[in-house]
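FORM 7B - TANDEM STRUCTURE REPORT

SECTION 1: FIRST PROTEIN
SEQUENCE AND TOKENS:
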Amino acid sequence: MKELAIVGGGPAGLSAAIYAARAGLDFIVLERDGFGGGQITSSHEVENYPGAGRKSGFDLGQAFRDQAVELGAEIAYGAVTGIKDLGDCKELALDGGEPVRARAVIAATGASPRKLGVPGERELTGAGVSYCATCDGAFFRGKSTLVIGGGDTAVEDALFLSALCKDVTVALRRDVFRAARRRTDLLSAKENVTILYRTELTEIRGEGRVRSVVLSGPEGTAERPVDGVFLAVGVEPAGGWLAGLPLALDGGYVAAGEDCRTSVPGLFAAGDLRKKPLRQVVTAAADGANAVTSAMEYLGR
């Protein structure tokens, strides 16, 4: 029996671990991936986390993890598949492992890339279709790629790929980017980048690997040869493991205030899994601290 279980090893979970360790709580961090660090580890560059300067997402995620471990955090690797409320504690089911019980739980499992659902996407995922440019971009050095999306992730992906690929096409449904102006200006200045506004991807074609895409835009529908397709069309909350609880949700995200308290006593939500207006590393880290503070009040510490 632990006082606290933190589910998720991204910025929110690791920030919570740092605060829990400093408070002397008996806790454990449960992380499904072998390294942890969350979505931020797939970001090419992070420049808006105070005090960090410019860092790769991987380096920043590793810094979070190293600091938590240095302070005494216990990190166990394994996917949490379900949760039961036993009254005086919560029981967490682990894929291929023994259940973990804790008096309080912080849910910090974040969100995962959203699928577009177009023909060819599922069949060619891993064969030219990717959701992580920094993970897979090196496979397309000197080749033609397409980035779908108009947010910060799409722009960062396109900037990263522009340094590797022969040419990069960015297609977005709107007539304006939703990303930071500074980054979109930098993208627009790249000679090997083409931006297609009011354009949608309708099909990905290829046998065994991506060969071309079908794009629909203001000038009609046309097939375009590409070697790789990078989808950056948003994320979906990774909270399926919470389905066993009478939990208040908002669009799939866990409803919780700035104190991270949910509708279930003893359960707290932090990071991208929590319903909130801004999902950034800095807000995830703040959630981790707030969640531990609320959990300590719940535990009577």
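SECTION 2: SECOND PROTEIN
SEQUENCE AND TOKENS:
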Amino acid sequence: MTAMPPAFMPPSKDRQTDRLIPTFDASAREGPSGPLSGIRVLDLSAYIAGPYGCTLLADQGADVIKVEPPNGDNLRAYPSTLEGENRAFLGVNRSKRGLVLDLKTDIDRAVLLDLVDKADVLVHNFRPGVAERLGIGHAQLEQRNPRLIYCAVTGYGEEGPLRGKAGYDQVLQAMTGMCTLQGKPHAPELTYGSPVDYYAAALVAAGTASALFERERSGRGQYVGVSLLRSALTMQSARLIQAEGEALDIARDMRSGGITGLHPTAAGHLYLSANTPRFWDALCELVGLDDLASNPRYDTVRKRAEHAGEIIPLLRERLKTRTALEWEQTFGDAVPCSAARAIEEMFDHPQVIAEGMISSIPHPVLGEYRGVTRSIKFSRTPGPVPFAAPLFENTAVRNAKKTE
């Protein structure tokens, strides 16, 4: 089931200022309602964390209006091989309507404030202090709309010496130890795919939904703060534990041993996880190394890590007798594993298809494209049909601020 973006309704005239106010038809979304249907979100954020957090809200039925500056969201300028569109922008901003406003001008700011009066949520990722200078800080908007949930995404939080510094996913990866733990000793490596941004997006959606739930009890909105620094550290909660008097050498506990990891095969690489006794025994049996399973030198994860130099050559010699896909079939449910695939293979993976994770979405420039849609399943309120991210040139009320 596919849908085109709901259209803007004809602008209405503000009699006091004699200007046009954009009106949105939230009811135009096709398909069943979602748990957040009827909630209006103003997305003033750019890049990934804030915008994708708003997309997760749109997946749940929220009416999301993406407000971009005259130059557009910076993500639109990222490299893309799509003709006339940007792959990253499409993936991050589905199911939103678009509006272009220059918030440095009084008339455009007034248009936004009119939307704020009727909004439930506003999300931005301005550096601390910028929103206040624009006249749209939390305290300023709270006076206009006391029920507004105001979510600010920052790099480093609202306080401290780095509060005003711009934060980016890979900068925070480097800062918080991810790169060091990801790479080999003395060779830090980045994790591509913006994990810090996407986890922050999940926190945006979760924090906003919690604030909306609390508003049902109190009748009041509130400030919701999400930072990339908090996101990066939250992702590593299992690592950031230090016992009293313990030396700061946390990394020593972070490896599962030489068995767990990627291994070469006759064709391709295979990821294996065999930490429990059941999985270890099954692995040894299926690769024909039964004597390893019965050897007391290797009967715990710690022992296998200590003797990885003995085990891995034997294991890899056996793994090279078949391809990664063949071993994946052989191990089945007996050993947690997966062949290392290219992301493009996920479009047609039978499990992805069965779960309905990919939808075909009409697009006025591309004709149609396939992409990820609903990330959460709701049995009774699955949410409306997803539609394409807004075109920058087709943000229908680009000139609605002008008088007739």
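SECTION 3: OBSERVATIONS ON SECOND PROTEIN
The first strand starts at residue 8 and ends at 14.
The radius of gyration is 25 Å.

SECTION 4: SIGNATURE
Preparer initials: ____
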